[in-house]
Amino acid sequence: MALRSKLFLPLRGRVIARPFSVSRPRWEAAPLPARKPVGAFRGGILGFLSGGVAAGASVYYYVLDDYRVANEMLNDDIIALQSATMKLQKYLTELEKKFNQLDKK
Description:
Elements: H1 3-7, H2 26-29, H3 40-104
C-alpha cells in the first residue's frame, strides 16, 4: 500500500467537516434570487417625473422670489406716491392761502 492510503486508512467511512478556509461561505452556497430588471420604460418615467419635480420646484421658488421683489418695489412706489401727493396737497393749500390773501387786498 502506498503511504498515502495508509495515512487515510483510519479515516475511511467517517465524514470529516472541511476547515473554514477551504469551504465556501454560507451566503455563497445558495444562489441569489434573480432581480427583476427595472427596464427602460419605468426608468424613463421615474427620471422624467423626478426631473419635472425638480424643475417645477426651482421655477416655483424663482417665481416666488420674483413676486416678493416686485411686491416690495410696488410698496416702495406706493409710499413714494403717497408722500408726493401729500407734498402736492400741502403746496396747493399754501398756494390757495396766498391767492386768498391777494384777493383780500
